[in-house]
Amino acid sequence: MKLFISYGMQLDLFNGSNVHTIELLNNLKKLGVDVLLFSRSSKNRSYKNPNIIEVPSTHFQFLFSNYLNIFTYQLSLFLYLIYYTIKLKPDLFYARLSGSGASSTIVSSILGIPQVGEVNGITIDEMIIQGSSKSKIKIAQLIESINLKGCSKLIAVTDGVKKGLMEIYFIPESKIVVINNGANTELFIPMDKNKVKKELNLDSTLHYICFVGNLIPWQGVEYLIRAAPLILKEFADARFLIVGDGIMKKEWMKLADDLGLLDNFIFTGRIPYEKVPVYINASDICVAPFIKERNSKIGLSALKTYEYLACGKPLVASAIPGVKDLIELSGGGIAVTPENSEELAAAVIKLLRDENSRKLMGEKGRKYIVKNHSWNSVAKKVLSVCNEASKSH
Q: Pick the residue with more confidence: 46 or 183?
């Protein structure tokens, strides 16, 4: 199969959507797929991949610049897809859908190439949480509707996303396949804790609790910060690693400072993808304190939860659909009530007191992820959907 993947963001390895896209590309290649990925050009991309076509876009720096930047990229993507489709004749388009553009869907329709769409969330719900205007939400909803209806098949990352597509956009159930996210089980592996602590210049005598991810509102890191005094009361040698960056970093650092806890927190900022397993392995427990808003409605298939377990670390996470299921199926952690700092603290304290439980949960979690959620297994499922879409067109 010859496959074109279209993606609307600059590629680096500092956020989950980029990791997902690059891992899917690499694992489809391993399965013998002739694949090209079209993404927004980036001056900061530190790696080379002959299967990535960088699509240029102008960066305006004045009023309405965001709209102009999106438009120029979508126009460039449209022209690139037309050119490369005529030149290379792909069997299928695969698009990570959003409400910011429909170039791939339009080219698919014009040239008669079937398209499979990947849906990781309901765009309008995310925009509401972020405080977007009603006019922006209406435009995004129109674009999202065009994209969804222009695909032969849709891949939803959770059952909640599938339900949302059916209820909001009236997509027939037969058109949607649920495929959860995964982890790179060759990169995210158990490592010697003392060795990686030394590598990171961390105190080998301290207990570390780790969060990895984009620092955005629905991650719920404030509940970990508010849980910290309760944890420190029982374990004064506990420290908290916040690995990642984002719009909430300053606010969460201020919260930790206001509570007199900043010395107990390490905010690392952006960390290269290949370095993330080192931070996870330096920790005793990993956390994912997701909030209810947005997450409870669509469920979650969060990369961090798979990567924590792949490293053999116990997971304490909010009992959000998808995450709670993962914990129960794997036996790799403890699910707690979302937005409940006391319960979060109690679960962390329970695991800090019991090294054997931490070890057992870690072993169970790693075994489950390797068997069910490697990126290789995800790519095989995606390829099956793509083959079905191509044959039925």
A: 183
